[in-house]
Protein 1
Amino acid sequence: MNTRQFQLIPTYFFTVVFVGLIIQTLGVSAQPHIYPAPPQQRKIVLIHGTIHVGNGKVIPNGMIAFDRGKILAVGETVDTSEAELVDVSGMQVYPGLIAPATNLGLVEVEAVRATRDVDEVGQIIPSVHSIVAYNADSKVIPTLRSNGILLAHIVPEGGLIGPTSSVVQLDAWNWEDAAYSKDIGIQLYLPRLYPSTPEAESRALQQVNTIRQFFQQASAYYHEPVHTRRNLGFEAVKGLFDRSKILFVHADLEKEIWLALDLARTFHFRMVIVGGADSWRVADELKKNEVAVILRPPHSLPLTPDDPVDLPYRTAALLQQAGVKFCIGEDGFWQQRNLPFEAGTAAAYGLTREQALEAVTLRAAEILGIDSLTGSLEPGKDANIVVSRGDILDMRTSKVEMAFIQGRKINLDNKQKDLLGRYVYKYGLDMDTTQIY
C-alpha cells in the first residue's frame, strides 16, 4: 500500500461512520410511515351512532351509508344490504371539520427559512398559483386529522393583492391528489388603517390607491372583447368580475372593513372578510351586502385595550344574532389542530353547540363555495366523516376514533401518538386507560 492510499483510509473510514450515524439518527427519530388511504372498496354503514348532520339536525341512534366516496343515506334506518357494518354505539358522528384559512403545507418550521414557501415577491401577484407549493408530506397534517380536521383552505401571503388560494383534502400523496377545489379566490391584504404616524398613514393611503387602480384597470381589461397584449395579473382576477372566484380581504379594524365593503359595492365582488375582529360593529352592512366573515380565533386578546376582555369569545354569537354568515378560523398552521376547541369556546359564549359545529363545517363550506360537495352529512355529498368517542368541540372528552375522506378510512396516527405509545410501553401502562392532562 502506498503512502497516498494509507492517507485516504482515515478520511474514508470517518466518512462511512459519519453517514452511518446520520442514517441511524434519522431512523430513530423518523415518524412512522403513514400512507394515504386507497379508494373505498365497498359500501360501509355506520350504525347506532349519534349523527350530527352539520345543519343543526341531530339523529340519536342513527345510521349513515356511503359507497364510492359518496354518502348514500342518513337516518334512523338505511339500506344495509351488501354493506360492511361498523358499530359506533356511544360515539358521535360529525362532518369532517374544515380549516377555513391557513398556511398549512406552505410552512413546516417557522424558524427555518428553507421550509417556508408561504409568500412571493411583489405587490400585485394574483397570477401565482400557490397550490403547487403545497407540501402534502407535512408532518403537521396528521396532527390535524387526529382532531377531525379533514379539509383546509390553503392561504398564501405576500403583497397587497396576493396569490390564488385553494382547498385541499388532508390525505394525499402530492398537491395534485390533495387539490379539492383549486384557485377558488384571490387574497387582498389591506394596509393596517390604524392611527399612527403621518408617514405611515400616507403610505397606507397610497397602497389603497394602488389597489383601486389595479381593479379599475382589471375591470376595463375584463370588459374588452379583444386584447392587444395579454396581462397575467388581469387574467388571474377575471373570476372576481364574473363572480366565479372570491376576494378574501384580510382586515380586522372597522375602517378596513368599511373600505372592503366599498370595494365590494364598487366592483360587485363576492367577498369574504378574513379576521374580522371588528366585524360585529358593521354587522348590518355585512349582512346587507352579503359579505361573509372568517373569524379570527376566539382564543385571542381583544384588538384594542378598550374592548371587553371576552369580546373575541362573544363575536361569533354577535354575528349569529345579526344574521351575518360566518365561520371560525385559527391562526397559522400547527395551531389548526385547536380549531374544534375554538368553536367550543364560541359555544360557551352564546352559540348553541350545533351552531358552533356549523361554524367549522357547513358554514365554512358555504363560504368557500364547496358546500355542494361537503360540510354536512347529506346524501350526494362526499363521505367526509369523523367519529369521536366524545364531544369533538370539548378538548376534555374528544377522542377521534376514525375518520373518512371521500369514503377512504384514513390513518389517524401521528408523531405525538407515537411518542405517547413509546412511554406508555416503557412504564408498562395501559394505552386505553392512560389519561393525558
Protein 2
Amino acid sequence: MKFAELATRWQDRPVLVVGDAVLDCWLSGTPTRMSREAPVPVITLDATREVGGGAAALAAAFTALGARTTVVGATGDDDAGATLRSKVWDDGATDRMVVAVGRRTLTKRRVVAAGQVVARFDDGDTAPLGGAAADTLLQRLAESLAESPAAVVVCDLGAGTLGRAVRSLLAARRLDVPLLTVDALDVAPWAHLGPDLITVTLDTVSGVVEGTNAAAVAAARGMLLRSTAAAVVSVTLDAEGTVVLSQDADTVHTSAAPGPRNQPAYVAGFVLAQLAGATVAEAAATAQRCAAARPRDLAPAVTKIGGLEATPA
C-alpha cells in the first residue's frame, strides 16, 4: 500500500505508550577560543532547546503522525519534571504521568559546538520507582489498558519506571492487547510477553549477532526471534538502515537516508503501519521513511505529510 493510504487508515487510532520518560536538552553555541584551564573550547551559548525524550518522544511521534496517544510514566517533583510534563502536553498526548515526590527527573543535557556534540551530562534518579508513586503508576496503566488501545508501546531505558509489577500487569492483560511493541535496551525481561514487535539497536543484540553488518544480523535470525519470542524484530544499523526479521515473512533490509535519524518516529511509523494492515515489508519501509523525515513533516493530517509522501515507496 502507498504511504498516503496507510496514513489515512491509521489516523486517530488509540495508542498507549508506557515507560521511561526523559527530558532531553541541547545547549548549542559557537566555539570562540581554547580555554586556559584545560584543552577544551570555550563555547558561547546561542540557544537552548528542551524536548521530551524516551516515552515522551515516542508519544510525541505517534501524536504527530495522527494517533490518539496516551503516555504513562513518571517524573520527579522538580523543575525538570514540570518542564517534561509541559512538553508532553504541548505535543498533544494525553498525560497520565505520575509525579514522584523527592525523585529527580532523568535529564540528558548535550553541549553542541558548531553542530557537533562535544559532551553530555546525565542527571536524575534511575532506581526502581517505589512507594505511592509505583502504586499510582500501576493504577493509571490499568485504567489506560481498560480503554482498549489498539497498540501498547513499551519504552524501557532501564531508568526505573518499569518494574516487575508493570510487567506482570501487562502479562495478565496480554490477550487484550492487539499489538504489543517493546523498544528496550534490554529485551530479555520482556520475552515472556511474546511481543508482536521488538525494536533494538545492534549494540543491544551484540551478544547474539556475530558481526556488525546486515548479513550478520540476517544470519542470526533464528536466535534473535527465539531469544526475544517476538513475531517481528527490527535491528537498527544506523547508516546501513535496519534489518527486519519476522516469524512469518522474509527478512527485510531497509536503507537509511543521509542525515539525522528520528528513532521514535521509526517506531511510531512501524506500529501505525501495522495497525493500518501493512505487510512487514511495507511497515519497515514506512518506518524508515518516518525516521528520515524532518520533525515538521510529521503532522496530524495526511495532507500535511508532504515531506514524507514526496519520497517514493
Protein 3
Amino acid sequence: MAVGLDPPRNILPVAGVRLSVAEAGIRYVGRRDLTLIHLAEGSQVAAVFTRNRFCAAPVLVARHHLAEGPGVRALVINTGNANAGTGVAGLRAAEASCREVAEQLGCAPGAVLPFSTGVIGEPVALAEKIAAVLPACVVGLAEDQWEAAAAAIMTTDTVAKCCSRQIEMDGVTITVTGMAKGSGMIRPDMATMLAYIATDAPLHGAALQQCLQEAMAQSFNRITVDGDTSTNDACVLMATGRAALPPVTKATDPRYGKLRDAITLVAQWLAQAVVRDGEGATKFIPIRISGGYDEAECLRVAYRMAHSPLIKTAFFASDPNWGRLLAAIGSAGIEDLDVAGVQVWLGAT
C-alpha cells in the first residue's frame, strides 16, 4: 500500500490536451493499457529520456521524432510490454504504432511519440493490438480524461499518480496538470519511468526545454526507491499556448520563473508520489544535506545514504541507529570530509 498517497482528485483539464484510454489486451485481458494524447496544433513539446545504454525501442524512436519531426501532435503510451531488448523487431513495432496513430489523427508519423512500459525482453505485437483499438480511442478523446490516463499507464503501481496546480499571471489563469507512473527501477538520471506534464501556458523553444531541465533537477532527479535506472524512462513537458498571453521564449522573461515554479511543484508532487508507491515501501524518507562543497557533493552523500541496505533496514525497523548514517556519510567518497563537523538529525530539523 502506498505511503500517505491517496487516489487523484480535483484534476484540472488543460486546454489543448485531449486524452483517451482503451483495452488493447497487450498483456492482460480486461484492463485499460493504452493511452492516447492528442495535442492542439501549435503545441510545444520538450522531453528527457533515460541514459541507460539499453534504452528501449520507443525511446529511440521518440528521440528521433522529437529531434527531426515536424512538431509533436500525439503521444501513444502502452503498458504491459516495455518493448525493450527487442532489437529490430521492437523498432519496427514502435514505428508502426506511430504510423497507425498518424493515420487516425491525420498527422505525420514523425509527429507521434511512442512510449512503452512493462515487461522487458518479450516479443512484441504492439502495432497490431494498438491499431485494433485506435479508432475507438480517437472517438473518446476528451480534455477530462487525465485520471483515467493516469490509471491506464500504471504497471506495478498501486495508486494512480496525477495532480494539478493553477497560478494567475497578468490576470490570466494558467493550469498545469501532470501524471506519472513508476514504483520499481527508480533512480532516474532524468525522470521517473514515465511522466507527462502539460500546461496551457505559452512556453516556447529554449525556455520550454530549460524549464523541463530545471524542474527535473528539483524533482525526478532527486528520488530513489531501489537505485536502478529503467530502460524506458521518459518525461515530457507539453505547452499548448492556449492561455491568452504573449509567448515566453527565454528564461530571462520576467514571467518565466513563476511558470517554472508551478511546473516544478507538479513535478515534485509526482516524484514524491512515485517514492511513496515504491515497491515494498513502508515509509517515505526525505534526506536533507547541507554544508557540502557544492550541490553535487551533497547529492553524492544523500544517494550514498539512500542506497545503503543497512540504513534502509534501520528505517524499516524504526530503529534510530544513527551510526549507520555516519558510516554511509564517511564512505561517500568525500576526501576532505570534516568528520568533527558532521552533525546528524533524525526527524524535524
Protein 4
Amino acid sequence: MGKFIFTIQGEGRGHLTQAISLSQLAQEAGHEVVGYAVGSTNNRKIPSFFTDYIGDKPLLQYESPSLCYGNGKAVQVGKTALQAFSKFKTYWNSASELASFIDENRPDGIINFYESITGLHQWRTGAKIPCLSIGHQYLLLNKHFQTIPEKKIDQFFLNLNTQITAIGSKKKLGLSFLPLENDTKRNIDVIPPLLRKEVKELKSTAGKSWLAYLTHFRLAEDIMAWSTLNPDIQLDCFWDHPSHKEIFHYSANLTFHPIHAELYLEKMSQCAGLISTAGFESIAEAMYLAKPTMMVPVPNHIEQMINAFDGAQSGAGLAASTFDLNLFKVYQKEHVTDYSTYHHWIQESSRLMDIHLRELIQPDRKKKSSWKSLFTKRIHWTLPKNNGGLSIPKI
C-alpha cells in the first residue's frame, strides 16, 4: 500500500471534489493520503466542503495560474496565457513551497488533479517522486476522443497547458463519461468519473424545481432575467459570489446559495433537471442521478465547450450557447436516456484506481529520463484534429 500527496487545482469545485472521491477510494483500498496541496489565485479561500473533509491532514495553499475573466462574463484567453510569463517568479516560488511540503510529508507518489505547479515542480526536480495526473482534460489528448471542429487555436493552447500540468508524470488518466479506448502511444488511460460515495448513496426522486450551478457569478444575470419572465418555474442556483456569502432570495421563484456540497447534492437528487456551466463533475453527478442537464459553457471557455459537446454525445442532456431556459423546458419533455451503461462504468472506478495507484509506486525498471528531456518529451507542439488527435498545421 502507498502513501500519497494530492496536488489540486483549486478553481471551481470539480477537481477538489475529484480529490475527495479518490481519497475515499484510496482509503478503502488500504492506501493513505498524507497531505493535500491546493493551487489557487490571489489566496482565494478553499471551500469549506473540502477543508471539512480533510480535517487535520496537512494542507498547503499556494499561488497558481487560473482563468482570467476581466470585468465581463467571458474568459480572456490572451490575459490567461500571459499569466505564465508575468507571474513566473511567483509560480517558481510556489514550486519551491510544494517541494518543501513534499519533503516534509515523504509520500511514495504524487496524484495531480490538473495542477500546473505540479508540472513545474516535477520538471525542476527531475521527477524524483512518481506522479500520476488525473482529469477530463487528459482525455482530450487521447487520439480516440472526438472533439469539436471549431476553435482550433484555443484547443491548441488548452492542450498545451494540459501537457504542462503533466510534465514528469508516469501516466495520464483521462476521465470519461463513457468507456473509450486507451491511447497507449501517449500513455493515456481512460477511467470513469470519480464520484463521491455521498453521490452514490443518494436516492434520486423526480422533483419539479430546477437546479443551477455557475462557475462564475456574473452569469447569474441571464438566469435572473429569465426567471422574472417565468415565475412558474422554481429555481435554486449555487454560485461563488464575492458579496453574497449567505442565501440570497432574488425573487419568489429564484434563490441563490453559496457553494455547499451536501445541500447541492440534496437539491440535485430532488430536482427536475440541472442547468450547468458545463463543468465535468456536475455533468457526471447529474448523469448518475439520471437528471437531464442543460450545459451552457462560459463564453470563450474552450474546455467547457468541449465538455458540453461530449456530454450531449454521451446522453447527459442539451448543449446550448446561452441561458435560454425555454430550450430546456422543451428538452425535458424529450429527454430519454438509458443510464445503465454509465452506472456499470462508474462501478469500475475502485478497481481501476487501485491498479493505477499500485503501479505508480512500483519501482520503474526503465532508465529514468534526465530532467533536461522531461519538457520536450511531454509537450506535443501541434494542433488538434476533429477526432482529438494532434497534427502539425499546414502553412
